[in-house]
Amino acid sequence: MRVEPIERRRIQLRGLLQGVGFRPFVFRLATDLGLSGAVWNRPEGVTIEIEGVRPNLETFLLRIERERPVHAVIDRIDNTPLEPIGEERFEIRESDHGGAREASILPDLATCADCLREIFDPDDRRYRYPFTNCTHCGPRFSMIESLPYDRINTTMREFPLCEECRNEYENPSDRRFHAEPNACPACGPHLELWEPDGALRASHDEALLAAADALRQGKIVAVKGLGGFHLMVDARNEEAVQRLRQRKIREAKPFALMFPTPASVGTVCRLSELESHLLLSPESPIVLLKKSASSAIALSVAPDNPYLGVLLPYTPLHHLLMAELGFPVVATSGNRSEEPICTDENDALRRLAGIADLFLIHNRPIVRPLDDSVVRVIAVRPLILRRARGYAPLSFQIETNRSLLAVGGHLKNTVAISAGGRITLSQHLGDLENAETDQTFRQAIADLKKLYHHSPDAVVCDLHPDYRSTQFARETGLPLCPVQHHYAHLLSCMAEHRLEGALLGIAWDGSGLGPDGTLWGGEFLKIDERSFQRVAHFRTFRLPGGERAMREPRRSALGLLYETFGDRAFEGRAALSAFNAEERRILKKMLETGLNAPLTSSAGRLFDAVASLLGLKQTSRFEGEAAMALEFACEGIETEEAYPFRILERGTPKSPLIIDWAPLIEAILGELEQSRPIGEIAAFFHNTLSEIMVSVARRIGEEKVVLTGGCFQNKVLTERAMMRLSAEGFQPYRHQQIPPNDGGLAVGQILAALRINQEK
Ligand code: ZN
Ligand code: ZN
Ligand code: FE
Q1: Using one digit for the tens of pLDDT, what is the confidence trace for 294-330?
Q2: How far is the CA of 511 from the centre of ligand 3 (A)?
Q3: Which ligand minimizes its atom distance to the CA of 319?
Q4: In angstroms, how far is CA 652 from the centroid of its own chain?
Q5: 295: CA distance to ligand 3 center in Å?
Q6: Which ligand is nearest the CA of 188, by number?
Q7: CA of 552 relative to ligand 3 center, distance in Å
Q8: Count of other CB atoms within 10 angstroms of residue 529
Q9: pLDDT tens digit sequence for 177-229
Q10: How far is residue 426's CA from residue 1's CA, in Å, rounded to a whole number?
Q11: In 3D, which of 200, 243, 236 has the Cα closest to residue 360?
Q12: 459, containing H or E segment
């Protein structure tokens, strides 16, 4: 009989491996195959030392990749031979705390089916326990303070395991083996219900039942969840929903809804298989769903909007509460107006004073704020519009060892770092328009630095000097690398599809500063290995009142009309009836002199202008409202028709093509006179924009076309553009994982800095 020699290997793995039940999986596999050795977490990944006969070692390696736990991602495996040492057993060792901090951190995961069964099983010791979790589900990013991922480095450190929980935690064949947030009613966190003055009204299950009672009575309850507070109210109670709008100072921006079950969603919304899959995924985002014709949902939940933002319960607390209620509730971020989400109960008492009637809280601290993520299905694929709970942090490999910090843009801010061959993108932090959000932004940067022991050697920011993020970048005193806004948008989409080399980028959004000092936003950039060239853009027009034009589409309309008709713009157009005589006088002055009326080539402002001309929106109550109204107006209209436009070539081959929208605007004005239905005009307008893309793409001649910028949150525009570009033989790419809006900028900024650096 041939005796196989004993071999020993050290296997180093990198990727998403901590907090997913990877070590117990390795333990079971090694034990099954009669191998000895050990497995332990390192800050940068997982190490296995394994000893046995070669065929078994090879099977082991094969099966590690093939059978790894569902949420585990292996980026890299290094395999080094060692001298056998004759060990007898396989063990899971304590973590090694030294070395570089670059392990990926797992996002928070929605409650799994096994845990769900336990909390509704009267015979289970976790019956009705709101903090039940296991290695397949539960808090992660919201409770991790430092790496490696061990209980001692999480906020669960404050809850010593009881004997039963410890047995589960230490038993390799248990579902809770090394489940770091493991807890039960005897040893884990608990609920309390507080009055607005902080007085305790009830605790444990009674707190939950009393909170449910209050919601049934139309009260507004602040509920501390996984990544922060929600404000909840009965979604069927019009009066209560309006009260929440008034107290929160949120006029019209849609509220998200939490439904008790997938079936209950089906009674109010139409949903595809993919959409219900997204709702039930471990990431458990808010999914934008088309409303059905009739529903019991209060109209003020999402005024003038054919969509509802829907999510399902994603923690045992939410499951228990929703099962108690049996009806949908508004579940909007626990904040006032545009402030960041509250994470701490004492802070919530102060900041949500006057908004919430009661506070359902718990004593597990939340390390960092994580809003609910938002996803929309566009062209049969999910598009993540907001990356936060469930998706954050995003981490992926790139070829660089530079340590950079990218501070993102101004709205929908996120930040990113690069180190040790990886980029890590933070969660959504919000619009940097007030002191609270600024604080959250600064904390998030400090947090990433601490988590990853990251010390950047340069800071990447937007070209715009007035963004709070740019100001912060300057304050660091580190070398600065300003990156043009739309270039960053494009590189973020290219990163997602791992695109290299020459291509045409179409970056359309509200605005971003161009190197020429004008506000860009309707850009066609040709990308090469190192830089970009502006090859085409929309004809510019003035925005009277600058910043104010962002909130008043009628100002964009006026600027556009003035550019086309000069003084005749002021003669009796519908869009102008929205201004009084005095306002018109001031606006005219601005347009004539150009003072406080910057030039823009923005596609977003073109949407605003058309929405205003069509009488859909003269003032916006939240960012993107006018463009959304235009998109929604196309509802149910199938048409191939488009309006005319002109592409102007200027002097030298180097100067960009100008897309003249004047024929388009004249056509729309003519249609309005002929009383063409608004919906048809809106649909023709979207078609025209797609034809513009095709027409420019033909002239530039690059096969690959990348679509990016906030305008591509628009389903009608994106689907039409993808379809038309493909039909004309181009290869179009759009965002899916990284938001096309400013939430994706930080990733692009890092990539731009790396390219600029190459050049030197
Ligand atoms: Zn579970
Ligand atoms: Zn316990
Ligand atoms: Fe942008």
Answers
A1: 788 999 999 999 999 999 999 999 999 999 999 999 9
A2: 6
A3: 1
A4: 41
A5: 35
A6: 2
A7: 18
A8: 10
A9: 889 999 999 999 999 999 999 999 999 999 999 999 999 999 999 999 999 99
A10: 58
A11: 200
A12: strand 458-462
